[in-house]
Sequence to fold (498 residues):
Amino acid sequence: MLIINSAASTIGALALAFSALVQVTHAKDVYIDCSATAAGSGTKKSPYNALASVNALNFTAGDEILLKSGTLCNGTLSPQGNGALSNPVVISSYGSGALPIINGQGGQAAIKLLNQGGWHITKVAVTNPATTVNARQGISITANDNQTHTGIFVDHVSVYDVAGQTNKATQSESYIVSAGILVDGSNFTSRFNDVYVSSNNIQNCGGGGIKVRMGQMNNQGQNGHVWNNIIENVGGDGIVMSYVDSPLIDHNECSGLGSGHYPWTGGNFAGIWVLGCHNAVMEYNIVHNTLMSAFDSEAFDCDWGNTGNCTVQYNYGHDNAGGMFLNCDGCGTSGGANQFVRYNVFQNDCRMYSNGNIPTLWFYNNVVYCPNQHFNLTVPPKSHFWNNIFVGTADSTLPTGSGIDWSYNIFETVSLPAGGTNNTAGDPGFVAPGTGGNTTASVAGYKLKSGSIALGDGGVVTNNGGLDFWGNSVSATAKPNRGAYNGPAVKTSKHRRH
Ligand SMILES: *[C@@H]1O[C@H](CO)[C@@H](O)[C@H](O)[C@H]1NC(C)=O
Ligand SMILES: *[C@@H]1O[C@H](CO)[C@@H](O)[C@H](O)[C@H]1NC(C)=O
Ligand SMILES: *[C@@H]1O[C@H](CO)[C@@H](O)[C@H](O)[C@H]1NC(C)=O
Ligand SMILES: *[C@@H]1O[C@H](CO)[C@@H](O)[C@H](O)[C@H]1NC(C)=O
Ligand SMILES: *[C@@H]1O[C@H](CO)[C@@H](O)[C@H](O)[C@H]1NC(C)=O
Ligand SMILES: *[C@@H]1O[C@H](CO)[C@@H](O)[C@H](O)[C@H]1NC(C)=O
Ligand SMILES: *[C@@H]1O[C@H](CO)[C@@H](O)[C@H](O)[C@H]1NC(C)=O
Ligand SMILES: *[C@@H]1O[C@H](CO)[C@@H](O)[C@H](O)[C@H]1NC(C)=O
Fold:
């Protein structure tokens, strides 16, 4: 009996230990339905009905926090703990219907993580409206503990109506942390690695769309990638990445920058830009219909403190009040990166501004189409303009100087700058210039038709990247076309053969 009792109690203790083990090793899923009347225990059958219940919990790799589709929660979701890069904690939705909404109700953010890594936020909607603007975000992921946090994924999230700060002139500190989505490890020696922000839809956010500041100038984050996001009508910058080694920003569309429910009210912003980065690449993006700010509002910007190469390629910009490109290497600590602006199409983006004389600009195989506006181009003292097509007005002027080299460009209407070589005046023979809309597909009118003087008559550029705007190859040795199109002449005959 004694033995049996002892065995029974041993089995009981083992069972208890086993269930404890199950609890700590098995990933937990917690469910939230803020429309439920009862508080619940966090299971799918009995979900929590308030964010506070989840904010009290500590999550680990593989855990999931699931909000019921079609519902609304008020407040800030700020769960504790860390996942892993390969197995993050997931914040997402369950059930069918509209994305669940978290309304921050004018608090700092709707979702907030501090000093945490290994998180994946997906398939939820966040909003954070207020009657007056302030330092606010839809999603805030920050660090101030001088540690490196790894693995932040934010995708398929809808972020809208965030009352972020809109005046960078008078409220710069609060402006720079205001955005739809903020990832910020810039505090002292904190840092984020592996930050992936993609396929989000961001509208009407004061301060800007996406700001990813991964570390500091001498402590850059690794693996930062922002792609496929749509950003509309935000009162400030479209996308900014700072303090990243080899950041990639691609296939995003930013429009209506400066406008929206929380419009710009002071200072400067730009479309897509990088600061304090090494070898930054901004490619295949569209930026359009940006409003003028104090001075900037260019579609793309290699700002200060960038090193290596800062590359802007395969993008389409149109109707941006500040024009196509800003060199702001002199706006802070100079990094002196080479600036490559190549194979882009700019329609009614007629301005370039340069503040900083150290970088060398390589501007080649672009189309700059400005038949109704003056060019307003200030460029670094060392600039190479090769193989571009400039369409301008007869009274526009282009910059000249002993270090500014104009070679193999085509100029329509606008006068050739003095001192160039192998430049040509005339009609470049575009298929249908001026017909670009808001999509990449809509710019096919900047391809070249039969008989174009731009075909096969450019100068060979070393390390030219090997591809044009449309993905046609560009030879390292044979003469390219001028402009952004390097394919064969496009047949424009209206009579199709059957
Ligand atoms: C969460 O759990 C981890 C691992 O057990 C622990 O190190 C950490 O202190 C906990 N954090 C909180 C906020 O309870
Ligand atoms: C959220 O707040 C709004 C406005 O105060 C209120 O109408 C709504 O009932 C709240 N919803 C929940 C689920 O708390
Ligand atoms: C981070 O580093 C700074 C500068 O050394 C220091 O002042 C601060 O206390 C540190 N913070 C933490 C949380 O260790
Ligand atoms: C870092 O964060 C701490 C705590 O939030 C704050 O007091 C401090 O001003 C921040 N410092 C920097 C350099 O951002
Ligand atoms: C920058 O680009 C040039 C020319 O394409 C290339 O030779 C060089 O290796 C690049 N530098 C870096 C740091 O990638
Ligand atoms: C060119 O742009 C500058 C700002 O960079 C502006 O001050 C100036 O008025 C513009 N000039 C013309 C001729 O449009
Ligand atoms: C101009 O083009 C011709 C023919 O391609 C070439 O021989 C010459 O070197 C070019 N001049 C310069 C300065 O590049
Ligand atoms: C392009 O987008 C702008 C708003 O940014 C809009 O006003 C315009 O109508 C759109 N154009 C086309 C062709 O869809």
